[in-house]
Amino acid sequence: MTAQILDGLAVAANVRSNVKKAANQLQNEGIKPCLATVLVGDDPSSAIYVRNKQKAAAATGILTRDHTLPSSATQRELIQLVEKLNTDAEVHGILIQLPLPSQINEFVVFSILNPTKDVDGLTPYNAGMLVGGKALFKPCTPSGIVELLDFHKIEISGKDSLIVNRSTLVGKPLAFLLLERDATVILCHSKTKRLVEKIRNADIVVTAVGNREHFFLTEDMIKPHSIIIDVGISRHGGKIGGDVDFENVKEKASWITPVPGGVGPMTISMLLKNTITAASLKKIE
User: Active site residue: 117, 118, 120, 203, which one?
Assistant: First the structure.
């Protein structure tokens, strides 16, 4: 048996098509969806991520405003920029690219971000509402994973689901999203004991480590017909890959995501979807 592919490119294209239709409708109603991006510092990877998000937004009819601050920027300077964007009626979504320089406290900055413009779903308000199943905006990678499963009509309810990641960007919010869908969730991390034993009992395995020296999922670590979702990304042997031994694991799993082309495209697509939702809120103000 060879696993079927969870095609993130196809699902992302579907999401973006719907976003473009919604953007056109909003523009016809006099609302121009706008995403403000904030980049602090000159990290090359972060700059590429921001450009990719801006390009994807433009392709779906979402305007973007680019805001950059030097790596020496103070926390107060960033807060002043965010406060300005909070009150700008023409800006519907605000994306603060992570990570931020060490002199800036991420929690403090996201605490002052307007939750109705929090298209990454990272404010304390939206994080707290996520626990209660009422989040206005959900973090993009976790919601993209759920969208990927739904598109392929994969049942989540009742599944024993294991996540190898406990970050606030992926592991923790994904755990709550899966719980909302009646999965039984185990959240694992670097201190988890008998990790392989736990993985072998899981119906759905989500791994987001991004370092093959610390974790690499092989076919002997999963049970037959399991669903494997690879969020990790790293360079190995001159090639981009994930946390999973794709070629061998796909011969044992029922569904699997490739890297690249799996979860990655979903993350930006869900950001665009959240931005359109934020712009749509103008209609009910």
Answer: 120
